[in-house]
Amino acid sequence: MYNSTQDTLIIGKKVIYLPTCHSTNDIAAEIVHAGLFEEGTVVITDNQVKGRGQRGTVWNANAGENLTFSIILKPAFLRIQDQFLISQITALGIRAYLGSYVPDTKVKWPNDIYMNNQKAVGVLIENSLQGARYAHSIVGIGVNINQSQFENSYATSLRRETGSSFVLTEEFHKLLKCLDAYYVRLRSGNQHDAIRAEYLRHLYGYQQNVKFLYKGNITSGSVTNVTELGKLRVKLVTEPEELEFGLKEIEWVRD
């Protein structure tokens, strides 16, 4: 059973636990539309049967072995053009939590988390706008904790990387504390540049030679920056100038 936490400021003060559900993001959206939510409310399930990933992909996780939840935020303090900061603080909070167990933990743009170059986390953020401001954000998170077998050979978990098994309720609270700390930093209003700089420091491919699939060809290059709007800036060896990419416009190629 997942309970609310007392040692955070915003995230996790109210926790709604469902043994099974189709999608925690969808349940969170229903709560929002009913006007029944407090900021920081978390919806968590042991068994998400229709989890969604980015760009229409599916997030599969074995029931009772991982953390699958959604957080309801109300970042009305953010300008619309700063919305990628929600993605950045989410990625950084998860990375800080996993990095306490596995030193080689990186953010892979935009907000996947990799341990030892294997994917351990999926994030799906759905924003709702009201005029020029946010109405709310629903942050869906799936973290592989105790699962040991995966259909995808590039997937991993804390258990696979550390050799240990974990108590999910304990790890849930540790993760919420990390996420809460970064959200509080964001709310302070004076940490935006520092958050962007920290995101770059932990970003896979930043100032490092990596491989990409671009226009049907495999090439190499390095990440040089991420724009405020969340686009990836890359210097490819085959192109004379830096290029900017949105989702699906360039792909990573694994070694």
Verbal overview:
Helix 2 (84-99) crosses helix 5 (192-201). The mean pLDDT is 93. It is built from 5 helices and 12 strands. Strand 6 and strand 7 form a beta hairpin. A 7-stranded mixed sheet has the order 1-2-3-7-6-5-4, with helices on both faces. It has 255 residues and is α+β, with helices and mostly antiparallel strands. It is globular and about 55 Å long. The protein has helices spanning 24-33, 84-99, 158-162, 168-188, 192-201, and strands at residues 15-21, 42-48, 67-73, 105-108, 112-115, 118-130, 133-143, 210-214, 217-226, 232-236, 243-245, 251-253. It is 24% helix and 31% strand.
Task: Walk me through the topology.
Layout (H helix, E strand, L loop, with lengths): L14 E7 L2 H10 L8 E7 L18 E7 L10 H16 L5 E4 L3 E4 L2 E13 L2 E11 L14 H5 L5 H21 L3 H10 L8 E5 L2 E10 L5 E5 L6 E3 L5 E3 L2
Parallel strand pairs: 1-2
Antiparallel strand pairs: 2-3, 3-7, 4-5, 5-6, 6-7, 8-9, 8-12, 9-10, 10-11
Helix pairs in contact: 2-4, 2-5
In short:
With 255 residues, the protein is α+β, with helices and mostly antiparallel strands. The protein contains five helices and twelve strands.
